[in-house]
């Protein structure tokens, strides 16, 4: 029989066990953080009907859909009825619209699942990746105080993830829109185009943005464009930025509304005990999507600015207008966990973890097999993850196996020790070993863990 | 704008939050049990290349594949290159073959992920469902002692799942094959057909099985078929069945090998402290798949026999012969968690869980908003999952929300209490309330949880 090459499809992150354990801890930490703030778990199917899924898309996303077809449907050359989700927002909208009458509002959900995009394959870009989302959805209205809670959750989760310094940048789209009004850029379409250009600032630089703003369909006066970018480029402490924004001329109602929301978020963050150094007003943050209508967030790792935003999101006016007439405003954020984990692992910040098993009971003498199983049963009953080796291979080989698998302790027992009622407990991280009475083994291991 | 109906695709299990919390606990319990026995986590992508995936299939499975195509591939009318996994065994085989040189053998992995089958849609059958698998893979060989470990894990996990009584049935395919030899059914193809018929015993009954065995391509002598089914239909204690098997005439080498493995498993189960009442030799268990070569398992819930086997598996000679020349024998089991959870929920054994949030801090007086956030921050710092209500709606409405969401405690504080430095702690499960000094709140809640 000729062999088929065993190969994962391109663009996925598949991990060896010790890396998978590290990734699992990573996801568990995020989940625990989300639950700490009172978010409830939701899971949705990996596919949605094409009808539901393709309401929001347009442009790039539409080209990146993975369609799904059963054998029968494919054979009959039908058009696909299903497609893999490309984010968790469309499934959330569908979920809330479908289960609206069974949910308690404000509805706080977290969702940690994989999404799929037919990206061009390249290092660090994934076609399958985890998103870890939280959203709060209100019915008819949702106070701005919820906008302050999002950075508080990000702060909590990223501290727990132990990824070094980070800065949560936030802004308000109304403030931006108000600035546009003040700078005579009132038309909706031009404003959208201008927002998209401003969103590219980090990538293409200020000069190119000014070129775009003054040319093409935006055609802003150069002087206005420069003053606009000066306003957007404000730096300093949050208090200084607020003061500078307050001092700005112009009477746009939107601008004042945005500024007042921004101040409310700042105030909420103080009450939530988020240290000022972790949250930063950044008037240049626009978020490309038209979807956002108020507060927007982007989070950067201080030591790895090149990674880009690792947690983004914002406030939107209406989650599910495609599926229901109910007005469902909300605010949410998303962590792209696969890419973040991958980048941190590449950078050496995250390392392969120890095994989930704490103890390997070795097979020193096959005639004592039943004892080895009994020892393992005792350890497990004490809540200690334990593996038994059943292959009576050379003991050096068994210890090497444990070390390679990342198991910290090995238990050895020969007939002499059995007669004495003791075992040898080896700590493989320290090359130490102790004679331990068998009855005290579990307690001893627990003490050392 | 006309609305699109918000609807999950047919054949998936999508849960409301409190059911999702119960399901999450269910999966966590399985995962914890698997880790307790030293199994390591693995996750594989939801899709595999068609080449890799379609090596094992044939018959029914092939008709139930979901193929995956990107927008571009679909537009160019290409044949799909990807398909969703239909079990976790093929991905395991591919994983072990691909990463063979980076893994430590015996390789013990658990995998808890969803799989996809284009089943006919009907109540209780799912197109997307979780499988929770463990396998131990050896290199070249794997001692039979590992076969005893599998029921020990099942025993541990199902006890923790708290699903009432259950019985782990086990058998050995060599024993069956040996019986066939003894009953002059030596030809490979006839034996396979006979195994498949015997596997249907529960569904079609003894008489129909005898008809099948004596007719068609199997054409066994009726007298032999009856004696074969008598052997397979043996009942009694495990010791009685072993004694009856030992007393059987016939000199098939396979039969004696199978019997000796069966006895080794029984012995191992005793050493692993699995009570005899939970494990039962059942010579009728065949498992349809040709894949299994030794010990096979099926697990039944005593109170719900109609549900069928809720945890099955067995020993196989070679995991990944399609992908590698290495010989990789293994043994494994699988829990179909979605279907099991669904059935237990329908039967009322599993109920919607309380919220993952323990406390709702209510919004009694908007001027105290900052205090509410500070109270929440204190509770969270103490490890208590806490939600803050920011809508200053009527307090009765806020309490109703908490009750509906399954949150146990509500914290209320007005200006009077603020002045006194206390809060009101309401236990919504008991309609009790206490005046608690603010500084002692976290400790009090922890004591009550």
UniProtKB/TrEMBL annotation, chains A, B:
Which Gene3D superfamilies does the entry mention? Answer: Anticodon-binding domain, Bira Bifunctional Protein, Domain 2
What GO MF terms are annotated?
ATP binding; histidine-tRNA ligase activity
Instruction: Kindly list the positions annotated as binding L-histidine.
Output: 87-89, 117, 131, 135, 287, 291-292
Pfam families to which the protein is assigned, alphabetical: HGTP_anticodon, tRNA-synt_His
Q: Where is the Aminoacyl-transfer RNA synthetases class-II family profile domain?
A: 30-366
Q: Where in or outside the cell is it found? A: Cytoplasm
One GO CC term, this protein: cytoplasm
Keyword terms, alphabetized: Aminoacyl-tRNA synthetase, ATP-binding, Cytoplasm, Ligase, Nucleotide-binding, Protein biosynthesis
Q: What is the reaction catalyzed?
A: tRNA(His) + L-histidine + ATP = L-histidyl-tRNA(His) + AMP + diphosphate + H(+)
One Gene Ontology term from the biological process aspect of the record: histidyl-tRNA aminoacylation
For this protein, the Enzyme Commission number is 6.1.1.21
Q: Which NCBIfam families match?
A: hisS
The record's comment on protein family reads: Belongs to the class-II aminoacyl-tRNA synthetase family.
Q: Which HAMAP family match?
A: His_tRNA_synth (MF_00127)
Subunit comment: Homodimer.
Official protein name in the record = Histidine--tRNA ligase
